[in-house]
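Re-run with default settings, no changes from the original entry. Doing this only to confirm the output is reproducible before filing.
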Amino acid sequence: MNRRKLVSRIVFSVCAALLGVAFALPLIWFVFAPFNAQADLDLALPKPPTLANFARVFANGAAVGALLNSLLQAFGTVLLVATTATLAAYALARTTLRGKRVIEYVLLLFSSVVSGSAAMVPIFLIVNALGLIDTQLAVILVFAGGLLPTAMFILRDFIASIPRGYEESALVAGASQWRAFVDVVVPVLRPGVTIAAVWAFVQVWGGFLIPFVLLRSEQRMPASVEIYSFYSQAGTPIVPLLAAYSVLYSLPVIALYWYVNRKYGFRFFGGIKS
């Protein structure tokens, strides 16, 4: 029996090591390739390391502007989703409405369709009718419309776990319903809002289809679309430049996760338990 356990542990360790190597090799290449002047897939250390790839990327005004466009779209969507979802989730969690559960799950169901490829034709027609084609506002509104239902669903559970007694105490003390919400609910709900904000940011940051369809001008394109400019006309990637731009493209998301992990440690709680 002991021998069987030992063999199973060895097999498990070997499989886990092979799986870890399979995941680690692309990351190792991702770290070293931007500093390599040669366009190859060599995992060895660059000899000598160079920053020329980053210099060429920064010399590309469209690529740098695309990063700023991505930040504009991401932060605009996060602000809209976080604010609207918080208010809507509070209303759903605190009001008694017949069929409320059905409404919530229908919203969650349709949220997977709004930003999908199946809905892009009607979305394009609506945006075109509003005269918002080739505007950042259109991209932000469409992203927010697709992410809002899921963000509401996430925040509703956080708000539902906050005891009503805290708000009732504030109301008894003379606070208005809005003041009770701002001073009592919002501080406790901050971790939940952070979850929704980080999730929305990542979704927008990596979004390709919506800006690709709704935008026309190159100077308004985000990095998720502009990254394809580092391919030749034959469709061959320019590996050093693509790797350098990919590192720059990944930095905001890594910095965001680092900040959230440092502030909260990813130890999120759904409110205060009574």
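The chain has two domains: 2-50, 60-264. The radius of gyration is 24 Å.
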